């Protein structure tokens, strides 16, 4: 396995660099959780009494209340509307505005059925709260990564005695964090592309998915590292570290792949049958766990080997 590590490094570097590039070029399409604003989900009966383009026009040309930019998405069963943060009065005014616009549209189109607007959902977050949630999300990720690093270093604190080298445990910890950053970067990069071309938003459920990916991925990496530790103790007089690392990866590969495949089967079921509410949460987990399985097997152990053999 180690003889192909340069290929793994090139492949991983390309994915991470690509993710950084698209993140710089496209940025992240932040949802109202982080950017602030209002989110409506409405249905219009009859459906022919309005469309996304017309609803945007009704809202953006309104003078009372003055809405500014409006983003309207046709969900198939209704419309998802994103606006600036609204007061309670403005909330009611917007519904009335859409009602009036739909009635005029229906009359012009010759529709005889009376127009009805049904509000399915409404959320509003102020810009200050949105920025506060952004800060808390970054803090959560930083604390999780720091906690993982210290835990891995503590868990492998005795392995340095086998190699007669201080600080070996911190190599395990640092490599584990590098693998996690690799996994998160690629997942975020994919969602930057989805946000640019498919209007997919980053919200609190995405942060929850990232935290779950971190937990799963580090567990997968620790399984491989723990087998390396066992084999270092068992074969303490074996001077060829490559043999030990290759054996450890081979010993744990089937277990890692089987575990990941089992989880991915569940996630595929959620993706295809879970509905829109869980789709992007499941997609983030699917991408993160797939990449995490790859990094645990093909990236973390080779990095540890190269760092240790150059001591």
From TrEMBL:
UniProt keyword list:
Cell membrane, Membrane, Protein transport, Translocation, Transmembrane, Transmembrane helix, Transport
**Description of how the protein assembles with itself and partners:** Forms a complex with SecD. Part of the essential Sec protein translocation apparatus which comprises SecA, SecYEG and auxiliary proteins SecDF. Other proteins may also be involved.
InterPro entries listed in its UniProt record: SecD/SecF_arch_bac, SecD/SecF_bac, SecD/SecF_CS, SecD_SecF_C, SecF_bac
Any idea what job this protein has? Part of the Sec protein translocase complex. Interacts with the SecYEG preprotein conducting channel. SecDF uses the proton motive force (PMF) to complete protein translocation after the ATP-dependent function of SecA.
Name the UniProt record assigns to this protein? Protein-export membrane protein SecF
Q: How is it placed in the membrane, per its record?
A: Multi-pass membrane protein
State one molecular function term (GO).
protein-transporting ATPase activity
Localization per record: Cell membrane
Specify the Protein export membrane protein SecD/SecF C-terminal domain's residue ranges: 115-309
**Main subcellular location of this protein, as a coarse class:** membrane
Report TM segments: 7-28, 137-156, 168-194, 206-225, 261-281, 287-305
């Amino acid at each position: 396995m180690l003889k192909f590590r340069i290929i793994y490094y090139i492949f991983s570097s390309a994915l991470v660099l690509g993710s950084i590039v698209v993140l710089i070029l496209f940025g992240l399409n932040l949802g109202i959780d982080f950017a602030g604003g209002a989110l409506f989900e409405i249905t219009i009966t009859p459906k022919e009494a309005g469309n996304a383009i017309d609803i945007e026009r009704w809202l953006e040309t309104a003078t009372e209340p003055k809405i500014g930019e409006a983003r309207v998405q046709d969900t198939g069963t209704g419309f998802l509307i994103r606006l600036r943060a609204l007061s309670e009065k403005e909330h009611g005014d917007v519904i009335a505005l859409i009602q009036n616009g739909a009635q005029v549209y229906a009359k012009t189109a010759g529709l005889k059925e009376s127009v009805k607007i049904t509000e399915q959902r409404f959320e509003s977050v102020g810009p200050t709260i949105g920025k506060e949630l952004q800060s808390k999300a970054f803090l959560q990720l930083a604390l999780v990564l720091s906690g993982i690093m210290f835990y891995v270093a503590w868990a492998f604190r005795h392995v340095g005695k086998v190699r007669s080298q201080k600080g070996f445990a911190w190599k395990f910890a640092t490599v584990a964090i590098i693998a996690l950053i690799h996994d998160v970067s690629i997942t975020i990069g994919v969602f930057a592309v989805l946000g640019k071309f498919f209007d997919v938003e980053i919200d609190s459920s995405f942060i929850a998915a990232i935290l779950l990916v971190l937990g799963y991925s580090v567990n997968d990496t620790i399984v491989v590292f723990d087998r390396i530790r066992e084999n270092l103790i068992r074969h303490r007089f074996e001077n060829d570290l490559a043999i030990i690392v290759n054996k450890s990866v081979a010993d744990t590969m089937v277990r890692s792949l089987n575990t990941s495949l089992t989880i991915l089967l569940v996630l595929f079921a959620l993706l295809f049958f879970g509905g829109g509410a869980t789709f992007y949460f499941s997609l983030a987990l699917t991408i993160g766990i797939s990449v995490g399985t790859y990094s645990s097997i093909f990236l973390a152990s080779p990095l540890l080997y190269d760092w240790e053999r150059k001591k």
